[in-house]
Specification:
heterotrimer; A mainly alpha; B alpha/beta; C alpha/beta; A: mainly alpha; ABC transporter involved in vitamin B12 uptake, BtuC; two-stranded antiparallel sheet; C: alpha/beta; Rossmann fold; 6-stranded parallel sheet; 6-stranded mixed sheet; 12 strands; 20% strand
């Protein structure tokens, strides 16, 4: 492959630009707020401790799955805002199923994961069907379905809840030891006893599948074509309605996986302290990673890292927890803006390059005009 | 082709518009180079050049949309710097775009005053002013008509009126005849002469040489971004003008002897399509195209051509009737099935229906043939084979591109179109639907595409050709049918039909006597 | 493929930037940080207390602030070195764990975890750090020698304000606004209901929770609190009790607009709420989280710390009702009688 230094330079330009812009803006805000600029930057650029690395990877695992679920929709211009509700209702279903221990050990885990995917898929299917039959925007219907999921799960959790003496938290039956996915120790790499979710492997597999299906299959081509230009896709023979339903279902099924590392690797139950808002975080991660399988992995890690900073900034630099959110927002915004700026520059460059190369071919002809 | 062709204006009166040494560069390209233009007051001045020659850029500069990198603009002898259309309007320049900018559900009055409310208000004063302009220049515009009810010619006159209402003394018309039928063109030209008679200046952009020669007082020719000649229309022939435009001999579509066979490839029986209102968009269409035949459809845009194409390719389902491909029924089948069965499709709007602008060329080659060799192996895309296929098509169909990895959007219109034609041809369709196959492409690409379509016909392909360019239709077709308000209103032999006959059938004028 | 490579390069570049900068900087964040500590006159080495707040943190005018008040009181008396950190909405369980760990890393070996959401994290971190002393609010599921469980009989306090509401209501119609429908808040409702019914079983009680878990925004959404209370006042209720944290501000605003009564929660809100609405606060159900926190720090200070559950109930004055404003003066005797009955065991207040 020929190395094109200009393209390479542009590829590097986006993150560099983003970091510079974020640095400047954050510093300005810190100065305005009267916070210690230096201390903040020291915390931001501190190498994470081993146990923090584990936490970052774990958080990124979950975020990545969420980002993939969102990206499946994004790739064809569907805004599945409903990933949030889908993963919660799906996790709940899986937790109830796995908690009942109908099946032994690994079988229980695998079937529960399938139950979760199915639940997520069905929940997303509702929005897909509403869109193709009644023309309801998926944005509206998925937002509403999120609400419904919240109340439905809260209602059902009351029935499914198992009381733990002395605890104010409500949750489903705790999974038996043999229905848990063991974590992966990284003690050989770094000094910590904390473990990475075993299901990080699932996230990697899903990332690979996402890439493979989109880049290598006919179905993926149709999906991308629909996203780039629905009218062109229709003219090329894509059944757009079927594509909408299929991709919503796939997106929902992927959303069903989001809660699995939490269920089988950390909480071992679904309760009212389950991590909320992962679907929305996944949208940011997907946006940041440009829906690209590796881009999203990097941005999921970045996001996990930023979340990790919250404690450090408060404890290490004495910054208010609100300011931490602002700093995170600025970094994300900078990245998005930088990508867009670079994308446009690249587009202009390419058009210019094509015109120039063709003009060179036509050079003998132009001389005649000058005469 | 030398400086001798630049006729110097003789009048001592200041020029309405004078451009000197205008140059405009875009990243990597020079769109305009050392342009000089002298427009006399009270004349119709035509600017001719093939597509992509730089006419649009020049007009954008004159209308303040873009600023030139070099050169000067003088209006009525005074140098100006136009930074926005607002300033251009203030300087008395008005522009009538090719694509009308009118709100359908507004009245004429509302459309005209929109954005110019300060001039005469929005009430009776404005209405009176519109009537006055309409009467002065014979525009026959009724302020309280709803735009949605009006035809293309009426809409164009409203656009002209809009510009006059804002006080323009110099009017720029960008390809005003592209959307008109011959009768409407005649009427437009009479309007333009009225404007001239009232002392206004008209700059008229076109590449239709007959029209230019009949209406213009002066002609400036643009080629490859620069002005190559200023000529007096009384002293040149269309042929000479064309050669100035192209820099070489002008091609024209000439069908060779008939290759029509009696093998029916595509047949439509009583196809109807309901519209939103009462009128049917397609009304009982019967059509037969044979192998080796090019069937041309003539008609004013919006009379059902687009819907006819979309029905054949499967994007719309007819409400009645049958579509048969080589005798077997494909009515109501999906686009993919129909394409697989051997229907190729060159869409009318390549950006909307023919290409993924942000995808590389080789992916665009797959588009529309996602299930066909060499693009796929089972459910997987065979990128290697598709790329090799793309390389071949690019070479064979002369798509000018540095690489098959660049995005389709970075190619010029002509090359995009050649890519589409090549793509559809390379799959050897039984029937080819070509909707406006040379719209918006340069003369060179146009000739190439004509040749390709003729070659396909020789090989026995059946072609359904839709075009607004009568010359193209007459030159290529074996049979021409006219579509009017969703009905086929006449069938003609292209060898003997005249433009007036076609024009009459297209507007329904031939039926008015009945 | 090109795209993939591009992204890898981009990612690599970003990573390099980060590491390059990090190696250049001296990681001494803690020393550069402004001290949130309160200096005191005490000569003795200060007790180092790390506070891990629930979502909202210090300044939420409710639960967290109540804990902060206990901390401030202890700081004044004993001289305490304080480090504070608050949870963010939607954070991972590991973030809570990490918060405790970082406080310990920074040398704050006496940790207060505010809220039952910390239960799992405290359990883990306490086991890994047996030398560190913990207090957790609203949870008694952990049993460890180095964990003090601070629990509150909020149902008992709610019983008393329920009785106050019933005795004050003229329309025989009262309301309850809960922040988030968790078991904890449901025990507030259960106590309130029992108190109302103890006075007059015919009184109608409206009940509304602002959000459902895991959406905990119901503890900080003034608009939702206002809307819920408005609905109740319009349908005839004339006293509304809120157990909705920061959303309670909206309940007070609605009460003021309707010219009716509201009942505060956690602290004496007639003293802490914005001045213009204080007049509508009939009483407040006081949950002495501040006393709990203070008790913990004091026990560390005088060396009497012991793991296990401490129940702050009516008897221990850990919960109660406030009398600021004098609106309950007329019914105080009756309330005191109920209080005595609960303490003596004559009345058992339900938890659910």
């Amino acid at each position: 492959m020929k190395v094109d230094f200009r393209r390479l330079g542009l590829g590097v330009a986006a993150p560099v630009l983003a970091i510079v812009v974020a640095l400047v803006l954050t510093t300005l805000i810190l100065l305005v707020a009267g916070d210690p600029v230096l201390a903040v930057w020291q915390v931001l650029f501190k190498v994470p401790l081993p146990r923090q690395i584990v936490a970052i990877v774990n958080e990124a695992t979950v975020l990545y799955l969420s980002a993939v679920a969102v990206a499946i929709g994004f790739k064809m211009n569907l805004f599945n805002i409903g990933v949030d509700g889908q993963y919660r209702i799906a996790s709940f279903a899986a937790a109830v199923f796995a908690g009942a221990h109908f099946l032994p050990g690994w079988l229980n885990i695998i079937v529960a994961i399938l139950v979760s995917m199915l639940t997520g898929a069905v929940w997303a299917l509702i929005a897909g069907v509403l869109k193709v039959t009644r023309g309801v925007s998926e944005v509206i219907s998925t937002i509403m379905l999120n609400y419904i999921a919240t109340y439905l799960v809260a209602f059902m959790l009351r029935g499914a809840a198992v009381k733990v003496e002395g605890s104010n938290a409500t949750s489903t039956q705790i999974l038996a030891e043999d229905s848990r996915v063991p974590g992966i120790s990284i003690s050989w790499l770094a000094n910590t006893s904390n473990k990475v979710y075993g299901l990080v492997l699932l996230a990697i597999l899903i990332g690979f599948l996402y890439w493979f299906v989109l880049a290598k299959t006919r179905f993926g081509f149709d999906l991308r074509a629909t996203g780039q230009s629905e009218s062109a896709a229709v003219a090329s023979g894509v059944n757009v309605k079927r594509m909408i339903v299929t991709s919503m279902v796939l997106s929902g099924a992927a959303a069903g996986l989001i809660g699995m590392p939490l269920l089988f690797g950390q909480d071992y139950a679904y309760g009212d302290t389950v991590q909320a808002g992962l679907g929305f975080a996944g949208m940011s991660v997907a946006l940041l990673g440009r829906n690209h399988p590796i881009g999203m992995a990097v941005s999921a890690l970045l996001w996990g890292y930023l979340n990790q900073l919250s404690n450090g900034l408060q404890i290490g630099a004495g910054v208010s927890d609100r300011l931490v959110l602002i700093i995170q927002g600025i970094i994300v915004l900078s990245v998005v803006v930088a990508y867009e700026v670079v994308r446009r520059a690249r587009q202009r460059l390419e058009q210019g390059r094509v015109a120039r190369e063709l003009a060179m071919q036509a050079a003998p002809a132009t001389k005649e005009v000058a005469a | 082709m030398s400086a001798a062709l630049f006729a110097q204006p003789t009048s001592l009166e200041p020029l309405a518009v004078e451009l000197t040494g205008i140059t405009k560069r875009f990243p990597g390209v020079v769109a305009n180079r050392d342009i000089s233009l002298q427009v006399r007051k009270g004349t119709i001045h035509a600017i001719v050049g093939e597509n992509g020659a730089g006419k649009s850029t020049l007009m954008k500069i004159l209308y303040g949309v873009q600023a030139p990198d070099e050169g000067t603009i003088a209006i009525n002898g005074a140098p100006v710097h136009l930074k926005s259309p607002t300033e251009a309007i203030r300087a008395g320049i008005g522009m009538v775009f090719q694509h009308f900018m009118l709100a359908d559900n507004f009245t004429v009055l509302e459309n005209v005053v929109l954005g110019a409310e300060k001039l005469y208000g929005i009430g009776d004063a404005a209405r009176a002013q519109i009537r006055k302009i309409s009467d002065d220049y014979g525009l026959r515009v009724e302020p309280d008509d709803l735009v949605a009810d009006l035809g293309v010619g009426d809409r164009q006159r409203i656009e002209i009126l809009k510009v006059l209402y804002r006080g323009a003394k110099i009017l720029i018309l960008d390809e005003p005849t592209a959307v008109l039928v011959p009768q409407e063109v005649t009427e437009l030209f009479s309007n333009l002469r009225d404007l001239k008679a009232e002392g206004l200046t008209v700059i008229f952009i076109s590449h239709k040489l007959d029209e230019v020669l009949s209406v213009a007082d002066d002609i400036t020719v643009i080629r490859r971004g620069t002005t190559v000649a200023a000529v007096d229309p009384k002293k040149v022939t269309a042929r000479q003008l064309a050669e100035l435009m192209v820099g070489s001999e002008l091609p024209s579509p000439q069908t060779e002897e008939s290759t029509v066979t009696d093998e029916v490839r595509l047949e439509l029986r009583g196809v109807s399509l309901a519209g939103h209102g009462q009128a049917k968009v397609l009304d009982n269409i019967d059509l037969v195209i044979h192998a080796g035949e090019i069937l041309g459809i003539a008609g004013v845009e919006g009379n059902g051509q687009a819907e006819l194409v979309e029905t054949v390719i499967g994007m719309r389902r007819p409400d009645a009737g049958q579509v048969l491909l080589e005798g077997s029924e494909i009515t109501g089948a999906g686009v993919r099935e129909i394409r697989q069965a051997g229907v190729g499709y060159i869409p009318e709007d390549r950006h909307r229906h023919g290409l993924l602008l942000e995808a590389p060329l080789w992916e665009n080659m797959i588009l529309g043939h996602q299930t066909e060799a060499p693009n796929v192996k089972g459910p997987l895309i065979d990128a290697k084979a598709a790329k090799a296929d793309t390389e071949q098509v690019v070479t064979k169909f002369d798509v000018r591109t540095p690489s098959i990895l660049v995005t389709a959007g970075s190619l010029s219109g002509g090359n995009q179109q050649k890519l589409i034609v090549g793509r559809e041809m390379s799959h050897k369709p039984r029937v080819l639907i070509a909707a406006h196959p040379t719209r918006g492409v340069d003369v060179g690409a146009q000739a190439a595409i004509w040749d390709l379509i003729k070659a396909a016909r020789r090989e026995g392909m059946a072609v359904l050709l839709i075009s607004a360019d009568l010359e193209e239709l007459v030159g290529l077709s074996d049979t021409i049918v006219v579509i009017l308000r969703g009905k086929l209103s006449g069938q003609f032999d292209p060898d003997v039909v005249t433009r007036e006959q076609l024009g009459a059938a297209m507007t329904g004028a031939d039926q008015e006597d009945e | 493929m090109q795209k993939v490579i591009k992204t890898i390069i981009a990612a690599g570049a970003a990573a390099m930037m980060l590491t390059a900068c990090s190696s250049g900087a001296t990681p001494s964040a803690t020393s550069a940080a402004p001290s949130a500590s309160t200096s005191a006159s005490s000569e003795a080495p200060k007790i180092k207390v790390g506070m891990a707040y629930d979502v909202g943190g210090r300044g939420d005018q409710s639960f967290n602030d109540s804990a902060a008040a206990g901390l401030d009181k202890a700081a004044k008396e004993f001289g305490v070195d304080i480090k504070e950190s608050a949870a963010t909405n939607g954070e991972a369980a590991s973030a809570r764990e990490e918060r405790l760990n970082q406080l310990i890393d920074a040398g704050y070996t006496n940790i207060v975890a505010v809220g039952f959401a910390y239960a799992e994290s405290v359990k883990k971190v306490a086991a890994a750090n047996p030398d560190v002393k913990f207090a957790i609010v609203d949870d008694s599921s952990i049993t460890a020698d180095n964990v003090m469980n601070l629990t509150f009989a909020a149902n008992q306090g709610s019983f008393l304000v329920g009785a106050a509401a019933a005795l004050t209501s003229k329309t025989k119609h009262v309301g309850f606004v809960g922040g988030v429908e968790t078991d904890l808040i449901k025990s507030f409702e259960a106590g309130f209901d029992a108190g109302v019914k103890a006075v007059d079983p015919s009184i109608k009680i409206d009940s509304k929770y602002l959000t459902q878990p895991p959406d905990f925004s119901g503890f900080g959404d003034v608009a939702k609190g206002k809307a819920a209370a408005e609905g109740m006042y319009q349908s005839g209720a004339d006293v509304v009790y809120h157990a909705a944290g920061g959303s309670g501000g909206g309940v007070f605003t609605a009460a003021k607009a309707a010219g009716k009564w509201a009942i505060g929660v956690d602290s004496d809100q007639a003293l802490t709420a914005p001045e213009d609405v204080r007049s509508v606060i009939l009483t407040s159900m006081i949950k002495r989280v501040d006393v709990g926190v203070y008790t913990f720090i004091k026990s560390v200070h005088d060396g009497s710390f012991k793991g296990g559950t401490t129940l702050f109930d009516l008897k221990a004055d850990g919960v109660g009702y406030s009398t600021t404003g004098g609106h309950v003066d007329a019914i105080k005797d009756k309330l005191e009688a109920f209080k005595a009955d609960i303490i003596s065991g004559k009345i058992t207040v339900p938890e659910k």
